[in-house]
Design goal:
single chain; 239 residues; mainly beta; SH3 type barrels; 2 domains; 5-stranded antiparallel sheet; 4-stranded antiparallel sheet; 11 strands
């Protein structure tokens, strides 16, 4: 007998985790500053802005070492965003430079773009926390689920009037003792215990448009507990 279909996200515990893969977006290893959002962590395509006024470049958000001055009219590539500063790769008088400049020195970014970047950064932090515990939630992507739980034992595709659905199945196995009767070298009957691998529970995850939309837990699976977990869907970037 199967448990009722779960329409909201639930925690999926380590019992279902198999081979964990690499993170979907591996950062370059740049030193991170508190309060800054690095675009590479969110797999955002490079954003280039015009320099509208000469600006001093520093190694840290709060001043740091002086690195040069960006040339007015040049183009700078955005690396990270903070409340009042932007980390860029640009051209100074002495050549290429990477550092922090005041946001006011660059062409303004669209407010909706900055808002989407910050919301996706918070979403990534939430997803990373779930992955660290081998859990999944509604609105996680297929890549994120694969990192959290590993490869599914089975995949199937459903097509109906609503569109295309993909279902991943994760099966948890248990070793169950089983008694067998055999004979020893002298021909006497003896009992032996062997352990048989049997399915102990199954988790089915349904995806629509690459996002988790539902989970189904079969009877015999471990108590999911943890309550309902729901995260925002990834936001689309446009600047």
């Amino acid at each position: 007998m199967k448990a009722p279909f779960i329409s909201l996200a639930l925690a999926i515990f380590t019992a279902y985790a198999s081979e964990a893969g690499p993170a979907p977006h591996a950062p370059s290893g740049l030193p991170r500053e508190p309060g800054a959002v690095y675009l590479e962590d969110l797999a955002i395509k490079p954003v280039k802005l015009s320099v509208i006024g000469e600006a001093a470049v520093h190694s840290q958000i709060a001043s740091g070492n002086y690195l040069g001055i960006l040339r007015k009219g040049s183009v700078a590539e955005v690396i990270a965003i903070a409340d009042s500063a932007v980390r860029v790769r640009g051209t100074a008088a002495q050549g290429a430079v990477v550092g922090w400049v005041p946001a006011s020195a660059l062409t303004p970014m669209k407010p909706e773009f900055v808002d989407a970047v910050k919301k996706n950064a918070q979403r990534k932090a939430d997803v990373d926390a779930l992955i660290a515990k081998n859990e999944v939630a509604l609105n996680m992507t297929q890549d994120e689920v694969a990192v959290a739980l590993g490869k599914p034992q089975k995949k199937q595709t459903k097509l109906d009037a609503k569109g295309r659905q993909e279902v991943w199945e994760f099966i948890r196995y248990a070793r169950v003792p089983q008694e067998t009767i055999g004979r020893d070298p002298l021909g006497n009957l003896v009992g032996n215990i062997i352990y048989v691998k049997v399915p102990a529970g199954k988790l089915s995850i349904t995806f629509e448009k690459n996002l988790v939309t539902a989970l189904e837990q079969s009877e015999g699976a471990p108590d999911l507990g943890g309550g309902v977990q729901l995260i925002p869907a990834p936001l689309v970037f446009a600047n």
